[in-house]
Amino acid sequence: MAYADTLSTDGVTDTAKKAFEDALANAKTVLAKTDATQDEVNAAWNQLLEGIWGLGLVQGDKDELNKLIAKAEDMMANADKYVETNWQQLVDALAAAKEVAADGDAMDSDIKPVAQALLDAILAQRFKANKDILEDLLAEAETVDTTGASEAAVAAFRTALANAKAVMADATLSVDDQAKVDEAVAALKSAMEGLTAGGAPETTDKPEATDNPQTTQKPDATQKPEGEKPAPTGDTNNVMVPVIVVVVCVVALVAVVVVARKRKH
Fold first, then answer.
1. 21 falls in which pLDDT band (50, 70, 90)?
2. Using alpha carbons only, what angle is made at residue 20 by residues 19 and 21, rounded to the nearest 5 degrees?
3. Distance CA 205, CA 68 (A)
């Protein structure tokens, strides 16, 4: 009995601890009875021995399990950041882990499996792909006016817009699928640019041409008096004198040549 009083119950499972404490208390009660029968003594002794044996049932180490639970609870508080694909796995694993963590009888053999399951569930989660740029671009695309664009450009735009909307609505896309989101953004941007690149730019109104200045009327030519010839001027007489002199000289030269030829004959 004195030996049993020195035993520690620290770290012992809740059930084993209670069994030992109950057995020890009963043994003390029987020992204090002056009229206790041998059967009562034997029963109390056997119960105490079982209680002492139960002290070997220690609780498992829950430090790692508690850390995993804290991590999972933080993820649950930010559920909107994760894709839904493996989310239920985390919900179930966390519930099982909390149950074991609260179990005072849980030993290492009970703790390790649920801790591993919770770790696997945490690692299975994926952040959602970043769709901020795609969301802004879709809002802009909804306001685009396709008037004046070619049929091919409009068709390409509508196809890219439909694909971008489908990508935006896909809640299963994670960071592992970010390239798919980026491709949808690039395709929609290109299609939107194609709407303006394919059409002719709007022409600005040209200013009206100013009227040509009216031409001034030419003054009427003065009319010459009918039947009258202009009187000869002194300039005409001056020109005629040299002409007459030249003619006379030419005639004289011809006469000299003729006379000279006759003398030779």
1. confident
2. 95
3. 71
pTM of the model: 0.59
Alpha-helical runs (H) found in the chain = 2-5, 14-32, 38-54, 63-77, 87-101, 108-124, 132-141, 151-169, 178-197, 234-264
Please, is 90 exposed, middle or buried when counting C-beta atoms within 10 Å of its C-beta (0-12, 13-18, 19+)?
A: buried
Contact 57, 17 (CB under 8 A): no
Mean pLDDT, rounded, of the chain = 81
DSSP track, 54-112: HTT-BPPP-HHHHHHHHHHHHHHHTGGGB-STTHHHHHHHHHHHHHHHT-TT--HHHHH
Across the range 47-76, mean pLDDT stands at 91
Rounded to 5°, the CA angle 231-232-237 comes to 170
Residue 204, pLDDT > 50, answer: no
Nearest Cα residue to 89 out of 116, 107, 60: 116
- Do residues 114 and 96 lie in contact, with contact meaning Cβ atoms separated by under 8 Å? yes
Q: 94, 69 in Cβ contact below 8 A?
A: yes
CB 92 within 8 A of CB 181: no
pLDDT of residue 224: 47
- What tens digit of pLDDT does each residue of 26-41 get? 888 888 888 888 888 8
Specify the pLDDT at position 241.
Answer: 52
Q: How far apart are CA 144 and CA 189, in angstroms?
A: 12
From CA 101, how far away is CA 112, in angstroms rounded?
11
Nearest Cα neighbor of 90 from 55, 125, 65 is: 125
